[in-house]
Specification:
The protein has 5 helices and 6 strands. The chain is of the alpha/beta class.
Length: 214
Amino acid sequence: MSSERMAPGQPKPSRIYLASGNAHKVAEMAALAARDGLAAEILSAKSLGGMPSVAEDTGTFEGNARKKARALHAVAPRGSLVLADDSGVCVAHLGGGPGVESAYFAGAQGDPAANLRKLADVMRGVPPGRRAAYFYCLLLLIDEGGRETVFEGRCDGVLLDEPRGGSGFGYDPLFVPDGYAQSYAELGDGVKNSISHRARAWSGLSAWWRGSRS
């Protein structure tokens, strides 16, 4: 947390523990919180000693997010805010896959680079008209009272023939959102954080935050 002095009357930021050790997700959500002016500090599960082992085996984004959130909530300080994200890319040509299995598309090791290569290989030769896809994000928040609230976001687009761009993470280099000619990984964080599936889910969380703390 920043050591800067807070102005008189300025609320102390609430800590939100993210049920993930993924530094990219932590940074992205911290940027989204700052974008929306939320008095929130996003902390990795590493700040609590690491993310407890969770089998993401429910077959649904919501089920997996709930398991992760509850596992971290069990080891977080009493009255903490805990947030879990479960997201993935859903490809029409693959019947909606890899979908909820996006993180493990290339195997149980959960290797993002291998997942990206496999999706590019599987889609190689598929014509432009059959490359529609969308990113989906489900956020599940456990608030200070233990109540659970779900927020969802989706961004439609198409898959490239080959990955492009050096920013972002996961499948970002292969996905071009509707209305753009660049991949998530070429657009840069500023643009991505205004249009992405996670940004859209976060907008729902922001609205909840303002309403619950007004």
